[in-house]
Amino acid sequence: MIKIIVFLTLAVTLRLNAQEATQKKQSASNNINTIVAQNNTQIDTLIHLARTLKGTPYVWGGHTAKGLDCTGFVHYCFEKIDIQTPYSSKYFTNYGEKIDLKDARVGDIMVFRGTNPSDKRPGHVGIITEITSEKIIFIHSSSSKKHFGVVETDYYKSGYPKRFLKVVRVV
User: Fold this and answer.
1) 65: Cβ–Cβ under 8 A, 6 or more apart, which residues?
2) Per-residue pLDDT tens over the stretch 96-137
3) In this predicted model, what pLDDT tens digit does every residue of 39-63 receive, in sequence order?
4) What is the DSSP letter of 169?
5) Any alpha helices (H) in the chain, and if so which ranges?
6) Using alpha carbons only, how large is the chain's radius of gyration in Å?
């Protein structure tokens, strides 16, 4: 009789432990899904806001919807989803999690050197808005006479690959 009671107690204990482990796994999975959903919502909000600013004029040092430079634009957009980014491109040297270009995602920040070929420091930034197998589209505030102000640019059909430094992820 004692053996049966011990056996039943052990069986019940093992069953309860298995149920608890399953619940913990489901809870962890739900937490991960919640985080992913929050990130997707943040990124959707970020990209929507960034695109509403298309056509905003380039203003050196600008950081309002009346006029934006590249870092002012990135800072303005990310600030709206409660993420602080540097106000100056030079501070992107050590900012964020560096990501390989092949692993870039929508919402990541592209960092480029400036227009001076001898200066290898960050000088321009933009936000990735679209990625397909053939293209990476990013939105940025440009001082170029060809496309002045906040515009979307096809990375591979531009001069930016020659100036590319890195991709950083902050969302």
Assistant:
1) 53, 56, 76
2) 899 999 999 999 999 999 989 889 999 999 999 999 999 999
3) 688 999 999 999 999 999 999 999 9
4) E
5) 2-52, 70-79
6) 24
